[in-house]
Design a protein that fits this description.
The structure is a homodimer. The first copy, chain A, is mostly beta strands. Chain A has one domain: YaeB-like (Elongation Factor Tu (Ef-tu), domain 3). Helices cover about 0% and strands about 35% of the residues of chain A. Chain A is built from no helices and ten strands. In chain A, strand 8 and strand 9 form a beta hairpin. Chain A starts with 11 loop residues before the first strand and ends in a 15-residue tail after the last strand.
């Protein structure tokens, strides 16, 4: 359960349940230029480096039609993250914050998502720009980006 | 592995691996008005019904500071979905499409996400609008919505 993140003063770790409730299948592997969190960007950019998402058998037929989408959402498993912190401190300010108020990789279910630009598909490899995860990250899913949400309603009395 | 989705003509199912690669912890439960996919909206709306996200122990301290965010991302496990289809057909048109080109709940790792409006937090319950999942859906994670991505670069020669 240890990871690259050591517990800092003010952070709280809890005991994880002994059993898990559902199982994930790694359906591919993501290739990026970054091997440590220190090197990786905090959030990917559409003009970031070209990254390769390798899709494993038997999932290749599931790529059909994905190339019609300019922006796709990539789901991956942050396999190096510890999972037991309920509060976390940034090294920069030392203030404790709840894990759910942060987009840090350290969380009970370390699932990462990025919205990326689809550059092309070559066989089992999906080429994209906009990732921020480490080289070798296990792939969980690919989806077209969601349609834009309708605007939020005005607060009552505001109109 | 069966679910509410029966295999239609043109759809392709594959054999799932016998072992899984990582385990998920259900950290709460989502309460919505919908008990079947037929009733539920395809995509949630910020003026949709108020829904209750119940967070289990020991994860309550992880909510600290979440109330400073107007829009949050909810991750959940689509527990009634089959996982073995690589191509799928909408009932409406019968055209086979790759699973990764769709946002259907039927996928190898049936993780759903919604961007919702945070209405309030009362103890272990997070009140939101904008969900589309079924009543009783297991909760996987809560995060602040991501910052808007910078605009995509212009195609070369377009400027």
């Amino acid at each position: 359960m240890a990871g690259e993140h050591d517990v800092r003063p003010g952070e709280v770790a809890v005991a994880l349940p002994e059993a898990t409730d559902a199982g994930l299948i790694f359906i591919g592997r993501i290739h990026t230029p970054w091997t440590t969190r220190r090197e990786a960007p905090h959030q990917g950019s559409p003009d970031g480096p070209l990254c390769r998402i390798e899709v494993f058998d038997p999932w290749l037929p599931a790529l059909a039609g994905l190339d019609r989408h300019e922006r796709i959402e990539v789901f991956y498993w942050l396999h190096r993250s510890r999972r037991d912190l309920v509060t976390q401190c940034r090294a920069s300010d030392g203030i404790a914050r709840g894990t759910f108020s942060l987009r840090t990789p350290v969380r009970p279910n370390p699932i990462g998502t990025s919205i990326v630009q689809l550059v092309g598909i070559e066989g089992c490899v999906v080429l994209v720009r906009g990732l921020d995860c480490l080289d070798g990250t296990p792939l969980l899913d690919l989806k077209p980006d969601r349609k834009p949400a309708p605007p939020a309603p005005l607060p009552s009395g505001a109109g």
